[in-house]
Amino acid sequence: MTAVSAIDVVKRFGRYPALNHVTVEVKSGEFLALLGPSGSGKTTLLRLFAGLDFPDSGTITFDGEDVSARPVRERGVGFVFQNYALFKHMTVAQNIAFGLRVKPWRQRPRRREIASRVEELLDLVQLPGYGKRYPAQLSGGQRQRVALARALAVQPKLLLLDEPFGALDAKVRKDLRRWLREIHDETGITSIFVTHDQDEALEIADRVVVMSSGRIEQIDEPATVYNRPTSAFVADFLGDANRLTAAIEGGRVRLGPLLLDNAAGAQPDGEAVAYVRSHEVAVAEGEEGIAVRVDHVLDAGPALRIDATVLTTGEAIELRLVSGQPVAAGTELRLRPTLVRAYPVRS
Amino acid sequence: MKGRRDPLISSRASRAALVLAAIAYLVLVLILPLLSVFGNALAKGVGVFMDSLKDPDARAAIHLTLTVAAIAVPLNTITGIAGAWAITKFDFPGKGFLVTLVDLPFSVSPVVTGLVYILLFGAQGLLGPILAEHNIKIVFAIPGIVLATMFVTFPFVARELIPLMTEQGRSDEEAAMSLGANGWQTFFRVTLPNIRWGLLYGVLLCNARAMGEFGAVSVVSGHIRGETNTMPLHIEILYNEYNYVAAFAVASLLAMLALVTLVLKTVLEWLSGHEPVGRGH
Fold this sequence. Notes:
Number of strands of chain A: 20
Oligomer: heterodimer
Helix content of chain B: over 70%
Number of helices of chain B: 13
CATH superfamily of the largest domain in chain B: MetI-like
Shape of chain B: globular
Low-confidence stretches of chain B: 275-281
Structural class of chain A: alpha+beta
Shape of chain A: elongated
CATH architecture of the largest domain in chain B: Orthogonal Bundle
CATH class of the largest domain in chain B: Mainly Alpha
Largest sheet of chain A: 6 strands, mixed
Order of helices and strands of chain A: EEEHEEEHHHEHEHEEHHEEEEEEEEEE
Distance between the termini of chain A: 40 Å
């Protein structure tokens, strides 16, 4: 069942189109990631869902109802801002209670109800006893959780998160994103979050919307987006892919002396760019392969990381070898990609 | 000097010299003039000092100055907040022009401001005949003084708030609205607490200038004793009449108002410093 959708939405800032005929449908209870580089339009799309900005054309619907012109305060959404936007002159409890306190007095819960709701939410975000603190007295991760509790206090139909982990360090990010997924599963609120970090999107989202320059490149489950990218952009953006000059000949990929199956499916013949992930390359033992010169070897971490240069074209290639014989810098190797995706060069 | 020398200042002597120079400068430029104001005011004893302030014309001038400030400061506070709010929280065509316009009173000489009001509202002015017909007096009367003061002091609040509100961005307001707050709730519960110290400072500066404004007010006032003389104008008249003690007595009162303003500001800043961390700025 579709809970919210953006249908053929266009948004311009000045002459620059931030969103160019974008259509997304979000299922009820789904956890959706908007993934893309900066300037791809993902945050703009999130703000259109929230009603913080309005589309130039196209519609936003909630449960089938057109809400395109409805401002943020009437949409019933929870929004978690990138910088959290906590009210710094209020305590944590006052921040969380804000959405309940500003209701018209007929709908406003009683003081005691508000207080117990705040306690519940503090428990939910694992900050019991923090109600009397001020935002400045919290760590980044704690502020993030307060921002989430505040957004959940008004029982939104839709939860929107703008780069929810953007300002946190790597360790906290990892813990928080799993925790956010748990909160989502507990509350069941349809949620959309924006990120530029592919690991984040792939790890916790039900489906990932990959965006680039105001357009949607692909909408699929994480495994599908990763394993079966439908465009050159997605193949390039996800999973440390090397870009190599290639050609498509009779539907197969010509890479130097090799002629390989195209994992990108049927593509027209001609000049092409091949995307090869760093871990989907093997050393060709006694077979033909792409000749490379090893520039640098890093033997730290689970895999051997090798930076090399393709001899014929001078292109850089990065590979990760989990096992095999030791490789020394300055030697030459022959490589054979185990999986290659090639797309025609856009002319 | 145990290895913790300031790399910029090589010796104790040069450091002391710099401190002394700064103090000497402050004494010469700020403290001596201020002391001389109070000294001259009390030159002939406290009795004469008090009499000068009890003089009916002096009392009228004090009263007028307070009245003008009481009208101009609140109006400029409200319009200043509204202007800063519009400029920093919304995008609209002509925004850059509005920002420039806010600064206009700072760049125009106060005397020119006064003359503009004369040309506009004076007997021979653009609107003069219409005003005369309805028997409304603006120039050489209190409305003119209030208008001139408002014009000159308009930028203080807006100028103080615009950089502050620009730096704070819009996300707090957006967060409040996403939680269901309406415009007034957003303003009073989120925006105002965020800007209060900057706002207070702007209001204090605006008030100090409103009470001390001379140029523009001098042109539109007409210098009618006991009626359209503000404190600065009254001081000038007394001074030109060689009535030094009376002039300095009123001047000391004006200086006192400025000192009270500064003390108030310091006290409020001290109070704000005792609030939970992260408040204010």
